[in-house]
Amino acid sequence: MSFSQKVKTEIISKSNNNKEYDIAELMGIVSSIGEVVGNYENFILDTDNPIVFEHFAILVKNNFPFDITKQIGKDNCKLFLKTLGYKLTNDPIAVGLSAFDEKMLEQTEMRKAYLRGTFLAIGSISDPHKSYHLEMVCNNKNKANRIQKIMITFGLDAKIVLRKNHYVVYIKEGSQISDFLSAIGAYQALLELENVRILKDMRNTVNRKVNCETANIGKTVNAAIRQIEDIELIKEKNELINLPDQLKEIAILRLENPDSSLKDLGTLLDPPVGKSGVNHRLRKISLIAEELRNKNAG
Asked: Structural domains in the chain?
């Protein structure tokens, strides 16, 4: 089961226990994939997702006296709702299903329910193990602007992009998707997403640390190679014996311990010397070696 399907399955498993919230959720579905026909007497819901039309049918049966029939086609399913003995215009709440009622969505919980219905109808979320991407695909710009406006009320940085004659409302940041899941009440999916985000952050932190340590090791090895080359040159020119005792001591230790860090070399001295002291002595040796190279070049 895809992550999107998990979210939708979780959403429909919960009951609003409130007719107004049911209506707001139905509004989200109908305004996305529904059509009113026959002088406000019938609805047609067109979807290829069986859990959406089953959930829609349950919400409708719980709130309206509709006769529901289902027609399954090759690629999708059309669900027909016919009123029993009266037109939708007889019920102002039912009329709200066919036309977006901004006043109905002044309450926070109503907006959440509307987003639930909208996501059920036209939403999807990518597998968080691969990427962070949530989108809702609308067939016109007004619907996209409406969804974006509602999402913004929850602090979501929703964007709109035109893709193949459809307007896509999307968010791409992991924490924003978590906030969206919280808003629509998909808490199990939220926990799964957060676990993935934590693991990703941990891996990224470890990788950065390993990369940093690897780079430092590389620098240490390269520095040690240069130091040994300098000392070998001084030794080759029979100048090692002429070095001051402090420099001669560190030079011999470096040759005997080519893999040791400056700090470790310092602990081998008597008395011990800190990292900066060891580095200072080796820099002096490097200058002496450079003078010998220049002399040979001349």
From this structure: 3-185 (3.10.28.10), 208-297 (no CATH)
